[in-house]
Design a protein that fits this description.
Layout (H helix, E strand, L loop, with lengths): L1 H8 L5 E6 L4 H13 L3 E8 L4 H8 L25 H8 L4 E3 L1 H15 L9 H8 L9 E3 L8 H10 L4
Parallel strand pairs: 1-2, 1-4, 2-3
Helix pairs in contact: 2-4, 5-6, 5-7
């Protein structure tokens, strides 16, 4: 509801709302909250490459299962398949998913810290990564990104800053 209130206060009524997505709880919850107050805002689940069960499920209309259950730096949003309660909500209310490679998550972590002084874990930076590096998949002029989770260990955070320094 805060997304709708803040966006509408700025004159934004149509936007892609990019959400870090695992099993779909956060994604479907945001979609439900926006349904009444901001029906022209379209929630878009964002997932890492090879762990895109929600994106594939939305495309096929049936729950899909990831081939692997681990091995991604976006470990906080890795689930085997969309939730049985969340998938029907996402089917009804969400747009297509966006799949992002891990390197883009690291790049977004560096941008978030350098430009905004926000610490994000890889899975929490994935929506920002979609906005920054996958704009060709967005449909409108306005984009809202959910940045969720700062539970990153020092080694991973240092890697993001070292490999993708912002100048």
């Amino acid at each position: 509801m805060e997304i709708a209130e803040q966006a509408i206060a700025k004159g934004v009524t149509v936007a892609d709302v990019l959400v870090c997505c695992g099993g779909g709880g956060l994604t479907s919850g945001i979609a439900l909250a926006l349904e009444a107050d901001a029906p022209k805002m379209r929630v878009r689940p964002v997932e890492p490459t090879d762990f895109d069960d929600v994106t594939r499920s939305l495309a096929t209309g049936k729950p899909q299962i990831n081939a692997r259950l681990g091995g991604s730096i976006c470990d906080a949003i890795i689930t085997p398949t969309p939730g049985s309660l969340t998938f029907p909500i996402m089917q009804r209310l969400c747009g297509n998913g966006i799949v992002v490679p891990e390197k883009d998550c690291l790049r977004a972590m560096s941008v978030a810290f350098t430009r905004f002084k926000v610490v994000l874990e890889p899975g929490g930076a994935i929506a920002l990564a979609a906005a920054l590096y996958h704009g060709d998949q967005l449909s409108g002029e306005d984009v809202i990104c959910i940045a969720s989770g700062g539970n990153v260990d020092a080694e991973m955070f240092a890697r993001a800053l070292a490999e993708y320094p912002c100048t």
